[in-house]
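Hello again,

I reread your note about wanting to compare the complex against the isolated chains. To keep things tidy I'm splitting this into two emails, and this first one only covers the full assembly. Below are the input lines as submitted, including protein chains and any nucleic acid or small-molecule components. They are followed by the predicted structure of everything together. The single-chain runs will come separately.
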Amino acid sequence: MDEEPRTEILNATYRALCERGYADLTLQDIATEAERSKASIHYHYDTKEELFTAFLDHLYDRYMAQIETVSGETAREQLRSLFDTLLADGDAVPGTEFRTAMLEVKAQAPYNEGVQAKLIQFDEALLGRIQDILADGIETGEFDDSIEHELVAEFLTTAITGARTRGVAVDCSVERLDEMMIEYVETHLIGETTAEVPY
Amino acid sequence: MDEEPRTEILNATYRALCERGYADLTLQDIATEAERSKASIHYHYDTKEELFTAFLDHLYDRYMAQIETVSGETAREQLRSLFDTLLADGDAVPGTEFRTAMLEVKAQAPYNEGVQAKLIQFDEALLGRIQDILADGIETGEFDDSIEHELVAEFLTTAITGARTRGVAVDCSVERLDEMMIEYVETHLIGETTAEVPY
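Full-complex prediction:
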């Protein structure tokens, strides 16, 4: 089967999601956005659910590429770059509409096993990536070797999730929260400074 | 106007929200849940929006009472009790259904100024409460006086928000996240231990 129309449909799903949100999104909306007939969407995806699962897979691939290739020579720089990637405002990252739609998707997760399974993949990917960066940093002596890297990774994953939720729900500047995360790393994880500046 | 029916309606709104979620909730659902006619709901609240605003006010009062009266003699105990209140699983706290509905409400906030204004009140109340506990703890010498209490309060508010989102979205144990938060406080904020156990 031709990949091109599928990619077009997934891109149209992204735009339709930004425009209409998740709850009321229909295959017809996506067809309209893709300038295709509903039948031609059905030719590739039987149900809205099947299409949306494919869409989340597509997002996941992009997400993995993003978090795997964060820039930086050192663990400290990589962590900073990861936070910037996930929390920056501006043109380079998905805007409020998309973040809002994804929060809606999260709120549907308890009622949709397939969606929840995908969201768990996103969550685990981020958690694993942070764990790896921390473990590297401890090994090179950049981070304090007494940090419990699994616990810190869990905490940072939770804080990133919270920053994104607050960004949508209470219109909080995610950039400010990004700076807060970086300060946490600088204050608590860096060997020399931890004892001197204990927050 | 009699307060009793209004309270009944607000309680029915809570139950209907748990059962149906926010997006598709109608005044008719609430009327059915309250065992009242739709007309009698309209007698008290003109629109779904007006009812929902009153419902959020009602929740806010309960939330304030909850976070203002956390138990504990010391700041450290109060912070722990606050986390337990907001993150514990079990019968004493609202279940997954309600948390899920509230996440849905958060995802609607950018499209509804009134709802967002209320959510900002919840957020600010929590932030303020944590700031106060931290300031008290610094004053009594319980917390390290070098902590930037406004920044730490922002971080903890963000992490609590993230714990609740992850609890819904990826079915993460919020109790485990609660313990993680307590460990953060014990490791980073307590004067004597900070230098010795720098995470």
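For quick reference: Chain B touches chain A through 53 residues (CB under 8 Å).

B.
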